[in-house]
Design a protein that fits this description.
The protein is an alpha/beta fold and 340 residues long. It is 34% helix and 16% strand. It is built from twelve helices and 13 strands.
Length: 340
């Protein structure tokens, strides 16, 4: 089950980030990441108070958070990438598995609920910061509104990609992803950790652009659906990934990050490769079974050739793992090419 409509990542105008502090340093590369060294509490405290703004709401954080709660996988993984698990009191709501490089850090934090916790369970851990990927986390039955949290002394931050008002959402770019990471690093008092993430991911994207593993390939990004395919469209994470590897998205003309398409158009496009989003509500295996079991779809070149690329859903949404998703797609495309 998807915890928020995919449409929450369909984005338009830039969200404002008001940051106090500077940016700067490190996470190791994606294969050998051991996490950044924590800042000393004294140094972090000297950076406060700070203000962070998203979705038209500004919160003032008076001191480094010590009992933060992250809701939704994207928010949790930004926190883990910044190495602030020792400042967290809980997490909730995953779409798929936490990657191995952050597994130990994730295991060190209490999981409050498989999906959203009740408001009572959330408040029981006395959070001083609630950070979420989707506006649904600030429902009255979950965290409560951001204004209510502020009145009770709890700061909050909502991913700009999850703003309820379309006008508040940024265009889906890697720059916008990095802006969110900068804001969260500032909120946690570790602004020096976001710059290295930005630098490392840009270097990775430059490498992928040079290799051009997707050049001359027409690609279908198949998210879910059987009667009607839900596909990666021209304005979200899937398009950013396909652009990063130099591939052509057969549904780039559709608006938004994801959109309903038609099997007739899929058949007409006859893609060279099919990227399969792997998630709890729609596994890659389920989609392959549907494609290969359908008398028409089974005749697509990509299906007959087994030209599948599998990407965890969390590597297809604008967030800290999107560059890893692009790298994975590139690697798998190269493997497919080597089979020919």
């Amino acid at each position: 089950m998807r915890h928020a409509p995919i449409g929450t990542t369909v984005v338009s105008a830039a969200a404002v980030l008001v940051l106090s502090g500077c940016a700067g340093a490190p996470e190791a590369d994606r294969a050998t990441d051991t996490g950044p060294e924590p800042s000393s509490s004294g140094n972090a405290a000297s950076l406060f108070p700070v203000e962070v703004t998203s979705c038209g709401f500004t919160t003032t954080i008076e001191a480094p958070p010590e009992r933060a709660v992250t809701l939704n996988q994207g928010a949790t993984e930004v926190a883990l990438a910044l190495g602030v698990e020792d400042q967290m009191a809980g997490t909730a709501y995953l779409d798929d598995a936490i990657p191995a490089k952050w597994a130990d850090a994730y295991d060190a934090v209490e999981v409050l609920s498989k999906e959203y916790p009740t408001r009572e369970d959330l408040l029981a851990v006395q959070p001083d910061l609630v950070y979420a990927s989707y506006g649904s986390a600030f429902d009255g039955k979950v965290a409560g509104t951001r204004a209510e949290l502020e009145e009770s002394g709890t700061s909050s931050y909502l991913s700009p990609f999850g703003c309820e008002e379309a006008a508040d959402r940024p265009d889906p770019t890697f720059e916008a992803v990095w802006d969110e990471i900068d804001a969260v690093a500032t909120a946690f008092g570790v602004p020096e950790r976001s710059e290295q993430l930005r630098t490392d991911q840009q270097a990775l994207l430059d490498e992928l652009a040079t290799s051009g593993a997707g050049a001359d390939l027409d690609v279908l990004w198949f998210d879910s659906g059987d009667k009607t395919p839900y596909v990666g469209a021209g304005g979200g994470g899937p398009q950013l990934v396909l652009d990063a590897v130099g591939a052509t998205n057969v549904f780039a003309d559709l608006d938004g990050g994801w959109a309903e398409a038609s099997w007739e158009r899929v058949v007409a496009a006859d893609p060279d490769v099919i990227v399969l989003a792997d998630a709890g509500w729609s596994s890659a295996e389920d989609k392959i079974e549907h494609l290969e079991g359908d008398p028409v779809l089974s005749q697509l070149d990509a299906v007959r050739d087994g030209a599948y690329v599998v990407v965890p859903f969390s590597e297809s949404t604008p967030g800290v793992r999107l560059a890893d998703g692009a790298a994975s797609v590139s690697d798998q495309l190269q493997q497919l090419a080597s089979r020919q």
